[in-house]
Amino acid sequence: FELPSDSFKYLGWCDLEERGVGGNQLRCPRVREGPSEEELFLRKEEHTLKRRKQVTDTEKWEKRLQENWENCAELNLSFQDLGDPYQVENFKRILRRLIRVEKLWLVDNSLTDLSAIRLPRCRELNANKNHFTSFKQLPKIPQIQHLSLAENNITTLRGISDFRHTPLESLILKRNPCEFQERYRQLVFSNLPNLKMLDGIPKLPEDCSPPDVRFFYRMCTIL
User: So which domain of life are we looking at (predicted)?
Assistant: First the structure.
């Protein structure tokens, strides 16, 4: 009889026997590839895992075809709990292959810098609850229309003008330090004139005024 632990003997879904699911068919995959033998040796933990069989070039190519991340159009990679460097690297490896993804969720992954990643077709990106501190740390998303960055640590609006030449329509920056900046909404809309909605609120007439314009004047009556 099979032991209860037998269901956990595979490193990933690609190792399952008689599998028939491709990467572009997965909606919420988990990034759980373990460390390489070299990594285990450097960490002096080579005894913790059984020695893995040598993977041939043919098997590597078959696995790449099975993953098929290049054809993903919609993917949820949220709540990955990326606790080790090898998990982060595998996570970024998948992101680099998402050349056709249009909708992507990366919620609550403790991400700090994805500036080396390019998502050429991404129209909707949800990166809430991460550790981004600047717009410069976001991936390259030239076709972005809807961007959500709530509950990060973005302190200033420096770099937001990089989105001026994108089709960005809605932006969410709730619960970021930059939200408390003086004339916050005016500054955002002055940098992004094509933006239609900020933090769930449509663009208002007062948001279109230059940040340094005063709306109220004191009146003095001389008797």
Answer: Eukaryota
